[in-house]
Amino acid sequence: MAENPKKEEKVADSPSGYSADIAKFQQLAAAIRERYKLSNYDLIDVLLKQKIGKPLDMIPVSIFDNKELSCLEAIVKYMKENLRFGSGKTAKLLNRNISTISSTYMKARKKMPSEFFAKESRYFIPISEISNRRYSVLESIVRFLKKKHGLANNEIARLLNRDSRTIWTVYARAMKKEEIA
Question: Residue 121: pLDDT above 90?
Answer without folding.
Answer: no
